[in-house]
Write a structure and sequence with these properties.
alpha/beta
Length: 290
Amino acid sequence: MKDRMILIGVDWGASNFRAWAFDEEGEVIGGISVPDGVLTHSGDAMERLKFHINEWLGEWPDVPMIACGGAGSSQGIHRTDYLPVPMMISDLPKHLVHMHGLHIVPGLKQASPPDILRGQETQLFALDESIGAVCFPGTHTKHITVEHGRILDLSTEMTGELRALLLANGGLKVPEGVEQVFSDSVFREWVELSLDTDDAASPFAVRAARMTGLLDPKYHTTALTGLLIGADVAAHYDPGDELTLVADGPLLKSYRIALEALGAEFDECSSEEATQDGLFELAEEAGLIG
């Protein structure tokens, strides 16, 4: 692998550290993924990064390295300034920050209403410039509007974080001793209870339905997740809207069901592949590789 490697790309998120090796065609020829996010582990960030890279490759690489996500946060390698929107996606390569041998991709900020993001700007760079609305599900789901290659605005919903907090504590925590099972039909049913924003159910409805025998306790997590994701989707899109959904795994499936229930038209894109492609294309445009 090492003789073909021309670039290392790093995505350091809140919960996970991921890195990939690229060949000259932009193909991923190796990678590492460990549950060591910038917010979930103490210690010096640069030393942690060196440790993971050395564990993976056996030595520090002599090829350029580009990093996005938490690498540019205050908990990361070096805090980079946020770039203000509106801005052209094509301008992003000009703003990479070189520090400690890394080329760090800065995040974006919005003044009114206040909002920020790190990582999704790299994924946007890999998408078609005329994409329009884009949904990035996650712990903090990002909704971004792009027009003719220009990022116009962004909005963050704390859907994933709220779900985790509600399921762990208080009146909506997972029933003790009940193994949770996911059901497509139950999920869609509770998504639809959120889509009518004039008469949407509150999260407490999940507890009430369970206590009155309308909801099998094993579907508690499914129902609450459907209600929260339905509210997220309904707050940003209308039936017939067109957008791009950037996600993988269970998040892709959940938001797909919700958008289909709403009646939106959408294309799907792998979140991981968008990050990989974005890192490689940014490195090319910035002149880091030939």
